[in-house]
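Sanity check

After download, print the first record. It should look like this:
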Amino acid sequence: MCLSQYIERMNDKADSSLSRMLSVLDLFSDQRLQWSAEDISEALQVSLPTGYRYVRMLTESGLLQHSADSQYTLGPRIIVLDHYIRQADPVLQHGIPFMKELVAQTGLDCVVSALLGQQLLDTHRELSQAPANLSYGRGRPRPLFKGGAPKVILAGWTPTALHKLLDAHIYEVADAGLPTEWPDFRRYYSQIRKAGYYLSVGELETNLAALAAPLHHADGTIAGALSLVTSVQRMGVIDVDKLAQLVIRAAKDISARMP
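Expected structure tokens:
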């Protein structure tokens, strides 16, 4: 083996080890907020010394912190990084004034959502005087196929990307009550794209309704979604067409200001 091949192999090995160490962070969820080094080693299928080394390095970096009974939780560095994410988010940099204006005009909560990888996340919420009780908030992944925000985002995808998503998540699509045959699935999202908005009534949470419109980057690709959220009962007495125009206009104003 020549030197260049040896170096390349060592680099690949280092990249693989780093990737596996960072995958420790993916173990944390609503269902399990604390992990021991032993359980981490078992979950990642690495040796116990390797598991302890991962935990030690992540703790030293602030990404993990030690809690009671030899358990570990996510560390304070996560909070710092979230602060930087908020500051760098172009949607929030330009969108919050328009969100505040929508709340003042409608008396409804206003939410920005984005698809990061294949996780749909709410990234910011402006509260009304009578805020809705949302189970999902910043950082908690939402279902991909239920609710207004993911539907207007996916409606902006290319047919090729949408087809791949259907193939990869066929069971989730069926569980959401959406068409599982490609022509019907594509037609469903094409209709949303043509309308320019989507009204979700009780899809994600049975007591809540949301009207969402897409946000776009300067090149026309989807940046996220802007939604107004309220109770199903209150949405039932609102002029949806007028509300849709307010949300669409605000989404366009935000999009126009994004770099």
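If your output differs, re-run the checksum step. Summary of this record's structure: The chain has two domains: 16-79, 89-257.
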